[in-house]
Amino acid sequence: MNTELSELLKREAEYAQEHKDAPVSEGTTVTHRGQRSRIFSLRLSEAEFALLERVADERGVPVSRLAREWITEKLAAESRPTDVAELAEAVSVLASRLASVASGTTRA
Q: Which domain holds residue 52?
């Protein structure tokens, strides 16, 4: 590979890494090859979806990403053995998140 092309690829990789959390441009198709292969449909009330959408907007992430993160966090917590102290900490964190959502002051 010639030096010019190598430098271009290096700059593009650095830019992509620096901006990996930037919002996706309209019209862009995002794929995650090899990572996820199942689609799961979920029905929410209008109020639940509106709240999910508001929190996602505040965090600057797509609604599906936020929902997936919350689901995977819960699955991870459910799949490992916990002692009483870990369970108490998880309940505390969840209570804090719910309180911040209810008050409109969500944290990322």
A: 45-108
Closest CA to 74 of 48, 56, 93: 93
Instruction: Tell me, yes or no, whether 67 lies in a domain.
Output: yes
> How far apart (Å, rounded) are the C-alpha atoms in residues 91 and 96?
9
Q: What is the dihedral of CA 39, 44, 48, 52, to 10 degrees?
A: 10
Look up the pTM and report it.
0.43
pLDDT for 3-28, tens place per residue? 888 788 888 888 888 877 778 777 77
Is the residue at 49 inside a domain?
yes
Q: Decide: 48 and 62 in contact? Cβ < 8 Å.
A: no
Report the distance separating Cα 29 and Cα 24, nearest Å. Answer: 9
Instruction: Please check whether residue 91 lies inside any domain of the structure.
Output: yes
